[in-house]
Amino acid sequence: MKFVNYATYVQDKGKVNASRAEHVAYADALRKHDRLVMGGPLLDDDGHARGVLLIYQVASQQEAETLVQSDPFVLQGAIADYRLAEWAVLSRNVDVESLAAKLVTADRHAPSKEPHASGATPVGPDAHSARLYVNYAKYVSDHSRILRARPAHRSYAQAIRAKGALIIAGPFADDSGALLIYQAKSKDEAMALISEDPYQAEGVYEATALSEWRLFGLNAGLIERR
């Protein structure tokens, strides 16, 4: 089972910075023990880390909650809020090599003195390279509307996946929303992918939160695992 942890930092960046090194070590250990699929910071429009997205591979929601509560970011008060949801991944045709190429490494995008794992704040990417963007979407409560629009949405998802614009996506297990990870050259380009989605046109998306996502850790062996 995959669980998404979508977390935002507190305003006190001192707490975030103070707990970052321990969080990095913790995230690295989870990846090593096949508990963390991938993770990295969520960026605001100015390129500053405003939170973190972590995707766990666990046997139960209780186990996922334990991983969240054991994270130094949580233990040391660096997280203002987090949302934990089971993720039913549907788009499994992932180009792992392409995804791995997006990893931010110390010698590519981040100064060597900075930690290069899921909590770090990196330097901006190459101007012409495609970046990763996360759409954390909430659905309307009218389930009939979701069902009506779902075939068109899935056809659209297949089309943009074939073009390399959709990396991995799927709804939350309770059908309250979805997580979609796009590849785009700008936030405007990623926003266009949402605007053209039938779920947007048919009013299925009650709210969408689009953020650039810097991938600082990846356990490729867990991508295809249910």
Alpha-carbon Rg, integer: 17 Å
As for the number of domains, it is 2
CATH class of the largest domain, named Alpha Beta
In the CATH hierarchy, the third-tier topology of the largest domain is known as Alpha-Beta Plaits
Q: What's the total count of β strands? A: 9
Count of alpha/pi helices: 7
The N- to C-terminal Cα distance equals 6 Å
Family: Belongs to the YciI family.
Domain YCII-related: 1-87, 132-214
Organism: Cupriavidus yeoncheonensis
Pfam families: YCII (PF03795)
Summarize the structure in short:
With 226 residues, the chain is of the alpha+beta class. It has seven helices and nine strands. The chain folds into two domains: 2-123 and 212-222, Alpha-Beta Plaits (2-Layer Sandwich); 131-211, Dimeric alpha+beta barrel (Alpha-Beta Plaits, 2-Layer Sandwich).
